Amino acid sequence: MTTDPPGPKVLESTQASPVLGGRPKKPDLHVSGHRIETLERTALLLLLVAICILFSVLPESRAQFASVGDFRNIASDVVVGGVLALAAIVPLVAGEFAFTARLPLEIAALNTAGFMVPLDQSRVDAIHAGLGTGLLIGAVNGYLVAVRGLNSFIITFAVATIVTGLIELYANGTSILVPGNALTTFGLIGSRWLGVPQALYAFALLALLSWYVLDHTPIGRYWHAVGSNRSAATLVGLPVRRLTFQSFIASGVLASAAGILYVAQQGSATPNVGQGYVLPAYAAVFLGATVFKIGRFNVWGTIVAVLFVAIGSTGMVFAGLAPWVQSVFQGAVLIIALGITKVIGRRRGTGVALAGPRL
For the whole prediction, is pTM greater than 0.90? Predict the structure, then answer.
């Protein structure tokens, strides 16, 4: 039997020291995964900065693109399309697709201009008429989809076809010119506050309101729940039909606000003007689901995507590319955005962004 020698005992570790020739420490997978996730969330923002730098240094576009005035023009140009993109978000969050997003824009523009010119009504009444138009179209779509249970893509496409014919009947193919007043002065690029076009403040206000409602109110959370899993939302007692109906109304009102801003900026209302805004708006919405809140439609991601599409299209014009390149660019952006959200959704096991709309 042996005994330990007297004196203080020293506890020796049986593990090899990583510094003195032991096994190297494993890489921190959590930190690596966090960096990758951060890159995914901000990739579009970095790409936006990259194309701004690209068009600022290209000889063909440098002279026109790098000035503050050009950036003001681009910012002013995104107002109508940006608000229309906000209008498209709400039904998509709730799991539906509103093909008619452009119609409230067109009819609200015509009604707002028509109330001010032929009917000689006040600007306030004209704005109320424009917003009421969007509310009415949203209510019709909401009733057919939520109450009658019809497919949102098919029924909104049918409603769009009908309303397009009514717009032609109402406008008879002519534009309504609005004389200079407080509304049109507000929308002019030269009308600025702190150096920023005033119409851009209206866009920012609507974006803040949309973000707050979607992310910080019960109805916004309910819309997300319905869009993520309709069956589960029904089981927990959410009024799915009512929420779907309300999403179409909110979309219609936002789209009509885009129409009023169009009149303010252009000083006129033209039939079928919304056709030029639809593809960029939906491209921005789906592309926005690849940034910040990946796999989910979100307001700030959509705004970054709106700027990306607008700056990309404008930069191509300044670079002297043919007009058809813009259409190809916008369509390609939409396809790429759908592909990215699908891949990320599958990898994360969510698929929220594309599982929502019942096409």
Answer: no
